[in-house]
Structure prediction request, 245 residues.
Amino acid sequence: MHTDMATPAPAVVDRAAYQAELDALRVREKAHTREGDAIAAARRRLPMVEVDATAELIGPNGPVTLLDAFEGRRQLIAYFHMWHTGQPAAAQCEGCTFYNGQVPELSYLHSRDVTYATFCQGPYEGSVRYRDFMGWDVPWYSAAESIDVLMAGRGPFMLACYLRRGDRVFETYWTTGRGVEVMDQTYGLLDRTAYGRQETWENSPAGWPQRWEVDGEQIRTGGRPTAQWSRLNAGRSGGDSGEQS
Prediction:
């Protein structure tokens, strides 16, 4: 438990003064929400581009197509998980582990006729062991054979949305980098705390704790992606041998 009284903290005021400041901020928050709604409305009006519905993926039962990955639903959201072939779990992408691991509940997407899947950039057999070690149960495919078609040089951290029209597939949206923060709740929650993300780029008052550069270490602990430790501490196997090929 941290009891460091030397670390600067917000000013202490009475309830009325606190509420007045919060009310002023709330006006900006609501404007931000409405602007997000307007951007989403514009996103729904984007044109789309056809992609190869037969692009090959490898799943648990062998080769399938991009069309198959829809699982019969109308839309598909795919996250392109970076992969370091031949490296153990500790050396796998901390960013992809951070983002992809925060999308565990798919039923609400399914209720809107949307499938979510991970398209790993590496081989299926090695990478699916990592998925199993992490305890994720999202649909997992290797897109290694079709990366040039599906990613077309975009990335890292690519998130793409597709629409199925009969047997044809169209890409309707894609984003990379900080655009994929929509996948995680961690940063959204931290942004509402007094100290925020505690990263050096943030505009925080002088003396606020800002331990981390944005260099990957901000989502690593003890030399491996932070989320791996709960799996190791629970005795889950595969942490250091999930990918050997």
In short: The chain has a mean pLDDT of 94. The beta strands are 49-51, 56-59, 62-65, 75-81, 114-120, 140-142, 158-165, 168-175, 220-221, 224-225. Helices lie at 15-44, 94-100, 107-111, 124-134, 147-150, 186-190, 228-233. The two ends are 42 Å apart (CA to CA).
